[in-house]
Amino acid sequence: MHILCLSNGHGEDMIGACILQSWQQQNLDLQAVALPLVGEGVVYQQSHIPIIGSVKNMPSGGFINMDSKELLKDVGSGLFPLTLQQLTAIKSWSKQGAKILAVGDIVPLLMAWWSGVDYAFVGTAKSEYYLRDEAGWLPSKNWWSYGLERMTQCIYFPWERWLMSRTRCRGVFPRDRLTSLTLQRFKIPAVDLGNPMMDGLHPSTNYEINESARLTVLLLPGSRAPEVYRNWEQLLMALDRVMGEYRRVDLQILAAIAANLDCQPFVQSLLTKGWQLQTTHINLSDAAVHLNKGPVQFSISQRDFADYLHRAHVAIAMAGTATEQFAGLGKPVISIPGQGPQFTRAFAEAQTRLLGSSVTLITNPTQAGTTLKTILDDPDRLYIISQNGRNRLGKPGAAHRIAHYLETIWGTR
Question: Alpha-carbon distance 407 to 26, whole Å?
């Protein structure tokens, strides 16, 4: 059996690769390839999944919906010829009798429908939680905010639901149960199997953080340069206020830096702000770089993401997927709007809707210290956050469950 995975973003590539790898474990005869519509598909390359068609990094990094200027940059860099080349590759591959797994938003979904073959869709971009929660509709600032979605009683537009309701669409896997139930009302084959975003986050060590007297704070600056370096400065301003609020507390700081970034600017920024290396040299090939400022310990790593998620009690974040994964572990997040193009105020506010009580959005980094203290001093609030995060992101193992479902409807066994 031949499967082509279409995905449009780094996080979507990770989900697609995770599902394909799990599927290949269940069906050794599965011939899986991928076409990342955004970027060069580094995740697929690392997972030894062949890439077909043309791929290219674009200036927007895939966030053209955030800023029209970013779209113009992409057009100038060859977006239209690239898209035509990708459509040609999809059509050619489809003639071999392949099935298509689309991961992301309407772009891969539309391409999957256009291919003319059977397809399935993992919807990562939309959730009913943007509109409402289990208690009802969320307040809207104005009519234009989710106006059509409210009118049609669904976060997905009618044309998106049309694509998901075609007979060739054999399965739709929304990111949460609330969205699945809504889509089922429209006779869409939506199945609630969890969110693959929470897969693969196993720590290398079992951390009993609740038994530790040390308060551990995780910084998540995002993954897109050069925006991420501006975010980093914002996070360090917030960290100063946290350290001021918790002078008498045994404090540890962790920072998870994406593997695709240059780590040197992050370390140098810390050095200019008075942090001192615990070794006489910087070796960025090590698992982590360790610094200190007085009794406060700071570890920064590009390899220990899962460990850091589990070790930390709270995160201060300006990130997309990483923020959701941390919240999905049942932990509180303080979020600070950035200048974009990804992590803008609009993005941060939408993320707060998506994650509910798990995220506290502040307007200025100087509010981080008092906000963190308010959260950590409220046991009832921490309990609600713990339950909320796990409920909205679901249990690990979704990739295996989705792969098993697809193997059941498409497999040869």
Answer: 8
